[in-house]
Specification:
about 475 residues, mainly beta, Maltoporin, Chain A, two-stranded antiparallel ribbon
């Protein structure tokens, strides 16, 4: 685990330049890896029902198993502080284990698609029903304090795998009706319309048969778009739509509603954009306004059953994004950029309203250059530049990570060998060995700091049969 945290009584962030990103705070002799396994199967059936009418049935099942285990740094009981590490950089370390987790998903989607003319307009439509089932089964978990660790990663502490806490089993069922239609209004104008109506039922109960919960929801989420083709290369569009988002309360004993699914809430997005496409140049630009529900932890989150995860207002993201792909001779140049204004709205804590959400960059820029070497067909030399702006670390916006830039270089060689195609890859990530805080997620009423990975060499070969 290479996430870090703020130090109590420090001003601002711990300097990323002084932190070795190779240090693993999970480096205990008893640490075990997270083990995940899964099987997925699907079956698709297509049947023509006549002229321009088709039936499609798609069934899927997925079974996942996992053993989730980690030496978990969290807070500083020595200073009665559970929101950061101690003033000297030490921290409480917990032995967390949740083994034998099982998750099963089933889905069946049956739809009819086709073309028709109605009211003098051409329609391309799709209508269907989707039913899903989800089941999560857990055993008891360990979440035990084992001592005080140090940021040098050298302190060894005893394990405590005692399964002292119950978890929460969940069952979810949903049935959805989905409709969509593309209407040709005129040779250059198209209207895109859709509607999804969902009925959702969720149940949960502790693995010790305590705290049963049940709720059911029904909601409709429409979307609408209008596009105009200026010519064969240029297209403008305007779209509006709603979606649904939900969260689970963390399955940790500090939460009163641990492991429970929270009611689903609607999100909304408006976008206006323009696209251009031709043989050597593709580009697009769009402006967007997204309103998403947010959740936060209310309470201390320092001892058992001391806080509750609950819905708390919205985050509004407004911005502009652009992409370009230019192909000229042996060169292929790609770039994307985004500038973003994100703000909290509607929080029960009025001090948070108008502030920026945590861990959302103010801007991002990605550029890629590829040069295809004519002297050796199949060889491409690649360069990547990634830039991200600052992110807020704490909800009160008192601490932010500065922006960072990373340079990567790589080479790719593809050739045939008999009946197979081989792709060789080699590269250097973070060429300048830049040290910076890459991300800063805020969860469990706790800020986490993830450093950029250090300079890394990598090589691989892929065989396609």
């Amino acid at each position: 685990m290479r996430s870090w945290n703020l130090f109590r009584n420090s001003i601002g962030l711990p300097p990323a330049a002084t932190i070795d990103p190779r240090i693993n705070l999970n480096n205990q002799s008893w640490s075990l890896p997270v083990v995940m396994a899964g099987t997925t199967g699907s079956l698709r059936y297509t049947q023509s029902l006549g002229h321009d009418l088709h039936l499609v049935a798609h069934a899927m099942q997925q079974r996942l198993t996992s053993d989730d285990r980690i030496a978990f740094p969290f807070g500083c009981s020595t200073e009665n502080n559970y929101r950061s590490y101690c003033s000297d950089g030490s921290f409480d370390l917990y032995d967390f284990r949740s083994e034998g987790e099982r998750r099963t998903s089933n889905a069946l989607d049956v739809s009819v698609s086709g073309q028709a003319n109605a009211l003098g307009l051409a329609h391309r439509f799709n209508a269907g029903v989707l039913t899903t089932r989800y089941q999560a089964r857990f055993k008891r978990e360990a979440y035990n304090w084992v001592g005080v660790g140090q940021i040098n990663g050298l302190t060894q502490l005893p394990a405590d795998p005692s399964l002292n806490y119950a978890q929460t089993n969940r069952d979810e069922r949903s049935n959805e009706l989905h409709l969509q239609d593309v209407i040709t209004l005129a040779p250059q104008w198209s209207l895109w319309a859709g509607l999804r109506h969902s009925r959702l039922q969720r149940d949960s109960v502790g693995t010790d048969d305590t705290m049963p919960t049940h709720y059911a929801q029904a909601f409709s989420t429409p979307w609408l778009a209008l596009s105009h083709a200026l010519n064969a290369q240029d297209l403008g569009y305007l779209s509006w739509g709603q979606g649904v988002e939900s969260q689970l309360a963390p399955n940790l004993p500090t939460y009163r509603n641990a492991g429970q699914a929270l009611p689903a809430l609607k999100s909304r997005q408006i976008e206006i954009g323009f696209k251009h496409s031709e043989n050597s140049l593709d580009w697009r630009m769009a402006g967007f306004d997204i309103q998403r529900p947010t959740w936060r932890d209310v309470g201390a989150c320092d001892i058992a059953a001391s806080c509750t995860r609950q819905a708390d207002g919205q985050a509004r993201h407004r911005g502009i994004e652009a992409e370009i792909d230019w192909r000229v001779g042996a060169w292929n140049l790609r770039s994307s950029a985004m500038t973003l204004q994100a703000r909290r709205e509607g929080s029960a804590d009025i001090a948070l309203n108008g502030l920026r959400p945590t861990n959302v960059p103010t801007s991002s820029l990605k550029a890629q250059a590829a040069y295809n070497v004519a002297a050796l067909p199949g060889l491409a030399l690649l360069g990547f530049v990634t830039r991200e702006g600052e992110r807020m670390v704490l909800p009160d916006n008192s601490v932010a990570t500065p922006g960072w830039t990373r340079l990567d270089l790589a080479a790719r060689y593809q050739h045939s060998y008999g009946m197979q195609t081989l792709v060789w890859r080699a590269g250097i990530d973070n060429l300048s060995n830049r040290r910076a805080w890459k991300e800063a997620p805020y969860q469990y009423d706790h800020a986490y700091l993830y450093p950029l990975a250090p300079r890394t060499l990598h090589a691989s070969v892929q065989v396609n049969f």
